[in-house]
Amino acid sequence: MSVKEMNNQEQGSIFEVFWTAFKLGLTSFGGPIAHLGYFREAYVKRLKWLDEKTYVDLVALCQFLPGPASSQVGIGIGLLRAGVLGSIAAWIGFTMPSVIALIVFAYAVGGFDIANQGWLHGLKLVAVAIVAQAVWGMMKAHAPDRTRGTIAIVATIFALLFSYVFTQVMIIILAGIFGWFFLSKSVQTQTTNIKIPIRRFTAVTSLVIFAALLVLLPILTVVYPTFLLSLFDSFYRVGSLVFGGGHVVLPLLESEVVNPGWVTNDQFIAGYGATQAVPGPLFTFSAYLGAVMDTGTHAVIVALVAVIAIFLPSFLLVIGTMPFWNVIRQKKHFQSALMGINAAVVGILLAALYDPVWTSSVNNMYDFVLVIITFSLLMLWKLPPWMVVVVSAIGGSIIGWLI
Questions:
Q1: Residue 191 predicted with pLDDT over 70
Q2: Whether this model's pTM surpasses 0.85
Q3: What's the main place this protein lives (predicted)?
């Protein structure tokens, strides 16, 4: 897609964004790294709402920001496609299926043990194939030569050996610095100029609101000590301060809801198991936690407050940073830095393919066989991801019966 084509690309409707995100929300199993694979296949390859480079640049930006990276990428794509309302539509569509499912779990499932169900194991295995497909495609696009391939490999090694909260951020920063100084000769003369459908004033206002809420909410909970306000403060703080997204949020959530006695440890563990059984972002675990705090008539309200609070920082940060990100990414030196960053993102994805995706899923040769089958269905037979998810769930059930 050329620069001119990108600049003249027709904006989509809010419903179009919602419906596309909703279908992804119904089928996107496997956690945040797998979600990026689903997004790439749908938004870049099939729908062509944005090109490969813009997508990876957006992923790199969201890796910098605290919060759930895959949800932020979806919010950003919705913003590019249909403005601020499009970002809201993309978020609602992607999160709604898992939010509804987890509220139902809070009512009906309770302490039922689903951790060892065969179909659930199949959903974990399909994530291996999806992430492998994403890594393969992004490696060819963003680490095609010796220098960038080496950046990707080094990033993989460091991500695996030093699995700390800020490791990914440091890898991206160092890769950007390396690219700034050593990849300038590889920079193309042109890059896509993405039209951001919001003003800079709106972006600055969004960042101000983000910081103000982070500072003022703890004060307000002291002045007005109500349950819903305290709940909103706790979940907003988690959404604002967790880097890496995904499973990194679990210890923070546990300290916020178990220690005050809002949720028991058994309820927390049961909810985590339920979250593994549904598609969509892991941050929708907040819906279960909110609902299980009050399984009466107000459960849905409490659940929605928790969900909105934990995702609100992502909205404010994406809206606040994207206009400035779009401008600086046009600069030649920054383009070279982005080349290093994009190669590092490939390495981070490759590390995630091993841990936690592979290590938490592939336990024996039967698992490996199912991974090969699902990977072949994606890469060779070009089946849509939702069909592969169904095949893997059935295969997981068969494996569970065999062993």
A1: no
A2: no
A3: membrane
